[in-house]
Amino acid sequence: MDLFDTHCHVQSAGQSSEGERATRELWAKAGDTSVDEIVERAHAVGVRQMICVGCDLKDSELAIEVAANRGGLFASIGIHPHEAQHYSGSSQKGLLDAFAGLVDRDKVVAVGECGLDYFYSHSPKEQQIEILKFQMDLAVKHHLPMIFHVREAFDDFWPIFDEYAAMAGQNTPLRGVLHSFTDSEAHLAKALERGLYIGVNGIATFAKNPAQLAMYRAIPLKNLLLETDAPFLTPSPHRGTICEPYHISVTASFLANLRGDDLEGLATASTSNAQRLFNVN
Questions:
Q1: Contact at 8 Å (CB) between 4 and 274?
Q2: CA 8 to CA 51: how far, in whole Å?
Q3: Selecting from 3.20.20.140, 3.20.20.70, 1.10.3720.10, 3.30.70.970, what CATH number does the domain 3-278 have?
Q4: DSSP, res 154
Q5: 199 contacts 249 by C-beta, under 8 angstroms
Q6: What's the CA gap between 248 and 70, in Å, rounded?
Q7: I need a labelling partner for 260 at 20 to 30 A (CA). Which of 17, 47, 64, 135 fits?
Q8: Domain range summary for the chain, segments of one domain joined by +
Q9: What digits encode the pLDDT tens for the residues 3-47?
């Protein structure tokens, strides 16, 4: 199989001070492992391409650095909604200018992970919206797809998305993926109406809610992307271990069985979808 992990945070593996703190600390629990060892394990099960997703300025810089000289690795630059408070307001213009300067760096294929998260209150809603709009401005200006993190915030997210989709226009439509999608079929339908892709990870393998499982079945194959969110969200039956990109093969197998899809066909379609969205081969 040819698999594409569209959302992982391997750039923090083996780091003692760089990278997003919680991610770095979780990788440390995996022991003395390196990015190259993680990539090698992924390649062994057919995961040929991965996007290293940034969550703040320094983490995005690290994602670019890690992807730079490794075949099949790409970077996305993002400011996570949890981090919005640290970038909001006129006093933080220097940080935002530095972040915007990353957009033209080699192997940057997307903007995100960015969005709105109202499940937690790490940053006020107003600041989350401000920083999301800043990143959407950047993506529209540079015609890049987006990786969205939206949790219990779709009522605010859809009007913002529609505003920027209209700004982008038909010739360069606003493109993106709803990362780690676990919401309702109603919001799935709204995403599909807007041409968005749906990112599915290990959460699907331990979901118990029949409505959520029905939602996973309802995702059209042409809109499906596979991801791990490594080192988080390890799929069953490997819960309790650190998630790595190679685990995407477990999620792919689960989804194929759940949906009644041919496994190789699902893998091929999801990889083609990712290559199309992120404009990579």
A1: yes
A2: 6
A3: 3.20.20.140
A4: H
A5: no
A6: 19
A7: 47
A8: 3-278
A9: 999 999 999 998 878 778 889 999 998 888 899 999 999 999 999
